[in-house]
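Structure in, sequence out. Go:
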């Protein structure tokens, strides 16, 4: 059924989304990681020797192509040990940033020395274009070829409940770590809140993957335990382990939210900053939320259809796209919630293409998601962001804002 509120003018829509984009960019506390920027192409390789690491960052930026030396570029690298402490970090630019040019690509070699007892765990390197405020982030996990080893020796079990995502469990679920021998293992807790994805046309933001943990819990394998705080945990077989299992502990109403404050949060994708502020500040959140949907749909019956469609998509995203953060906050989550189920999904070894077919209201749209293997997620997908998505995004959100949407 198609629903349309004709009182929302085209001029009003453009003004609304101009303000939405302006304010909601400031509303996000964090940023999105591993950008595939149109202006920057980069690759990263690492060779590990005894007590030294040789890394090579190769990048292309169109504005640098005719030049003989780089300018307004900075590189920041950070080497972490197995308990997420910084071994070495530095920021290089100007005369300290040595790069050489080969064909159209710039090569930045980096040599890092470390002590044998420091046992490097991961290397993060970030390339900044200071003129455009864009950055590209890479991460290398030492010993990543044996990532599955801890999964083979330790198995996460949830009593009387299945996992609700990619190593996602609910708070206060009864858990235990199954292994051949009973022993102590370590759970690193990261209490930070990860931000929702930004719209697909925003290409100059990158999420800061903070490695600083809040606490470390010690639990014994083959014995039941519970995790009473929501957030991201990282299970390690020993303090010196080079691999681990990320565990996302979610609220009790995950993946289908019922608590009003969690129902409000995913509305950030189709709401203005003023509306979100009103949701959080009002004493009667339920009444404000009902008025919001009725105003969009035009009447309560149509509002129910919109609410059901929106939160069915939120629940689906939570169930299937969760990794180090809830599924609705991911790149795949934002696209699925706002655009709906793709007409076609084309799967490759390291990427997926979501196709939304041409119809009376839109041209064919293709979103490309690339698989990223990071410390906290071995099977997450990042969107190849493009400024060209702006019009499609505005049109998709317009459908929500005017109630002009086909029910899933």
């Amino acid at each position: 059924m198609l629903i349309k509120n004709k009182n929302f003018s085209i001029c009003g829509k453009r003004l609304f989304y101009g303000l939405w984009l302006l304010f909601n960019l400031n509303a996000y506390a964090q940023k999105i990681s591993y950008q595939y920027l149109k202006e920057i192409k980069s690759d990263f390789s690492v060779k590990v020797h005894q007590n030294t690491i040789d890394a090579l960052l190769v990048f292309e930026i169109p504005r640098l192509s005719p030049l003989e030396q780089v300018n307004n570029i900075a590189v920041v690298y950070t080497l972490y040990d197995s308990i997420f402490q910084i071994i070495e970090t530095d920021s290089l630019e100007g005369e300290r940033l040595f790069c050489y040019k080969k064909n159209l690509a710039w090569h930045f070699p980096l040599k890092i020395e470390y002590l044998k007892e420091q046992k490097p765990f991961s290397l993060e390197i970030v390339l900044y274009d200071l003129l455009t405020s864009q950055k590209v982030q890479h991460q290398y996990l030492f010993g990543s070829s044996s990532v599955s080893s801890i999964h083979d020796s330790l198995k996460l079990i949830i009593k009387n409940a299945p996992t609700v995502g990619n190593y996602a469990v609910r708070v206060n679920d009864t858990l235990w770590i199954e292994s051949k021998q009973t022993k102590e293992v370590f759970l690193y807790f990261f209490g930070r809140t990860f931000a929702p994805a930004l719209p697909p046309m925003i290409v100059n933001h990158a999420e800061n993957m903070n490695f600083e943990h809040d606490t470390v819990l010690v639990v014994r394998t083959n014995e039941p335990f519970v995790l009473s705080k929501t957030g991201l945990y990282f299970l390690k077989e020993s303090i010196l382990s080079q691999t681990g299992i990320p565990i996302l502990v979610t609220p009790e109403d995950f993946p289908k939210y019922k608590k009003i404050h969690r129902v409000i949060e995913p509305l950030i994708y189709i709401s203005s900053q003023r509306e979100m502020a009103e949701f959080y500040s009002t004493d009667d959140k339920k009444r404000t939320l009902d008025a919001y949907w009725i105003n969009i749909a035009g009447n309560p019956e149509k509002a129910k259809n919109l609410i059901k469609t929106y939160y069915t998509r939120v629940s689906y995203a939570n169930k299937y796209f969760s990794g180090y953060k809830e599924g609705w906050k991911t790149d795949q989550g934002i696209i699925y919630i706002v655009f709906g189920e793709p007409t076609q999904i084309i799967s490759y070894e390291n990427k997926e293409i979501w196709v939304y077919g041409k119809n009376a209201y839109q041209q064919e749209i293709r979103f490309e998601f690339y698989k990223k293997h990071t410390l906290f997620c071995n099977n997450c997908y990042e969107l190849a962001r493009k400024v060209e998505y702006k019009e499609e995004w505005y049109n998709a959100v317009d459908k929500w804002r005017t109630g002009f949407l086909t029910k899933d």
